[in-house]
Specification:
598 residues; 15 helices
């Protein structure tokens, strides 16, 4: 109860963080029940629950049910309101609204949305209590950014699947024309002394109230995104402006224009006016209606216009879809440095179906993400949008599901991805398995989370393809070997090729020479004894022996990739050697160094 946020009954806008409790004090229990019903709460036992339909109700992904927004209980003279992981602004009772804030910064929420804005299952907006936005009570940029993202996705979907249009047939006589010739009419023309053929031309007309309403909403969004409010720019303003502008131009290229004189007609449009086969118009129409029915057009006032853009976002779904996008994007970035084309069959699958019983298609498991290489599963990953400080591995249900996924896919690598815990490794008792928690140690940002995700993918893939860790080191620093470029990394296992160490002294000299004559390293005269100390370290490393006095890096089965890294502006940098050895047990990668050039 100590974490509950309190406000007085009648407060126009109450703010509470998702998954925390809001207590509204000073209520009249008798009238409160009627007010909750008037605000579309449904009684379920002792609770009142408010739900929203999803934009994509036909989805069969398990998230197709209504979006649970708020639950409330009447306790004596107070109302205890509990939001779920859905954030946004929701009407509580007449005259009162609840703004549910995300537990991560809004800038990161917007960035997640921009990452997945073309995925049709996470964002779901409705309408927003209007007077607060106009009065500057809430941050307009958050709401407008979400509207812009929904608008762009809606129009992109329509462009892909087809605009509503009318086909007008027109006949015209003449020697030049487009379309087809009406043979019967042309013969009739000849019989009456007119030699001109009759053309049947089809004109495509996209001008209709639905397309015009979407166009007007886009023009308004452009005007909003070009403005600054109280000195604050909208998150990702330039990108959002460009995205909306592109979609508005796409509409206008089809001859669609709109008029404010028809605003009343545009506002009266509903999804029921659309043909069934045009269900893909749903998001664009919802977004446009939210904008056009609002005081954003400058028509402030009470009455029916008090709903502006009420919106709600399922953060759990958003985080899962964002994670999937990040996994695929980072996998592509690793594929780009794969000079041996090892990752051609590696994929990161989204909610694949696993069947525990042979011949039974009704029982199935669906892990959030599965890292696979052909038929082999390399890792199971589960997105968990848990509250701050909660270890997902301590959740019995989540842990049991994870172990089930690992058993069914025959993998011992498992990971929970969450926003507000810290990086952790948990070895599984009596097995070689391991569960990792992938989460920034400090405050969540998308940059930190994406970096950790890439690190986990690289680590998982390098267990099977060890050279990837070397390729990644080269990507983030400099390959320093005279007469060798990154293109030569495809020969990294050739013991007679560019990375051979058959002559350690020559190899060491090539490393120093490349650094000294590069644009990123110090000149040779700047180095103490012209780099002889580092040369000696490199030569000694190539000739290292083990405890039985046998070569640690046999020249006939070992190659070496030297990497140069500059640490600070006043430092001459460091050299690290990566030895790749192909033996009977497979490939091993060993690291020697780093050594400073001074």
């Amino acid at each position: 109860m100590s974490n509950a946020v309190r406000c007085e009954y009648g407060t126009e806008l109450c703010s509470v963080q998702e998954n925390r409790k809001l207590i509204v004090e000073g209520c009249d229990p008798e009238s409160l029940r009627d007010e909750l019903r008037a605000a579309n709460f449904v009684q379920e036992g002792s609770r009142y629950v408010k739900k929203r339909p999803r934009l994509r109700a036909e989805a069969d992904d398990g998230d197709s049910g209504p979006l649970h927004v708020l639950s409330a209980r009447i306790v004596e003279n107070s109302l205890h309101v509990e939001p779920s992981d859905v954030v946004g602004i929701v009407k509580l009772v007449p005259g009162m609204s609840v703004q549910v804030e995300p537990k991560i910064e809004w800038e990161n929420v917007i960035r997640m949305l921009l990452t997945v804005y073309d995925i049709d299952r996470t964002q779901s907006h409705y309408g927003i209590p209007l007077e607060e936005l106009i009065a500057g009570e809430i941050e307009a940029s958050q709401l407008i950014a979400i509207l812009a993202i929904n608008y762009v996705h809606g129009v992109k979907t329509i462009t892909k699947k087809g605009f509503i249009r009318d086909l007008n047939i027109r006949r015209r006589d003449g020697y030049e024309g487009l379309g087809s010739v009406d043979v019967a009419q042309t013969l009739m023309n000849h019989a009456t002394g007119n030699p001109e053929p009759t053309w049947v031309e089809t004109e495509v007309d996209y001008a209709n109230p639905v397309n015009e309403a979407i166009h007007m909403a886009g023009k308004l969004l452009l005007r909003l995104l070009q403005q600054e409010r109280d000195g604050h720019q909208h998150p990702r303003q330039d990108l959002l402006l460009s995205m909306v502008h592109q979609q508005v131009k796409e509409i206008e290229d089809r001859g669609i224009q709109s008029s404010q004189k028809q605003l009343g007609e545009y506002r009266r449009l509903s999804l029921a006016d659309l043909p069934r086969q045009r269900h893909y118009y749903r998001r664009a129409v919802h977004t446009s209606q939210s904008i056009l029915s609002s005081a954003l057009l400058g028509q402030t006032g009470g009455g029916p216009e008090e709903l502006l853009v009420d919106y709600a976002l399922s953060m759990n779904s958003l985080f899962q879809d964002y994670t999937q996008r990040v996994l695929r994007r980072e996998l592509e970035s690793l594929r780009a440095i794969d000079h041996l084309d090892r990752l051609s069959d590696v994929e990161c699958e989204d909610e694949p179906r696993l069947y525990p019983f042979e011949g039974n298609a009704e029982a199935a498991h669906e892990p959030d993400h599965l890292l696979t290489d052909g038929d082999e599963t390399l890792a199971v990953l589960d997105s968990k949008y848990y509250r701050q400080g909660k270890n997902p591995a301590n959740d019995s249900a989540s842990r049991s599901r994870m172990f089930a996924y690992a058993y069914l896919t025959d993998t011992d690598r498992m990971a929970f991805l969450c926003p507000q815990y810290h990086r952790d490794r948990l070895p599984v008792t009596n097995t070689g398995g391991e569960v990792e928690v992938i989460s920034p140690d400090e405050e969540f940002t998308c940059d930190k989370y994406e970096r950790l995700t890439r690190e986990y993918l690289l680590e998982s893939l390098a267990l099977k393809y060890p050279e990837l860790s070397v390729f990644s080191a080269v990507q983030h620093s400099h390959l320093c070997l005279e007469d060798v470029s990154e293109d030569n990394l495809s020969e990294v296992y050739d013991t007679t090729g560019p990375f051979a160490i058959s002559n350690p002294a020559t190899f060491a000299a090539r490393v120093i020479n490349d650094i000294a004559f590069s644009t990123y390293g110090p000149n040779k005269p700047d180095l103490e004894n012209q780099g002889q100390w580092t040369k000696s370290r490199i030569k000694d490393a190539c000739g290292k022996t083990d405890e039985d006095d046998r070569p640690r890096y046999p020249q006939h089965e070992t190659t070496c990739v030297p990497v140069y890294t500059t640490d600070t502006a006043d430092d001459h940098g460091r050299v690290t050697l990566y030895f790749l050895r192909q033996g009977e047990g497979g490939v091993t990668v060993s690291k020697e160094g780093p050594w400073a050039l001074m």
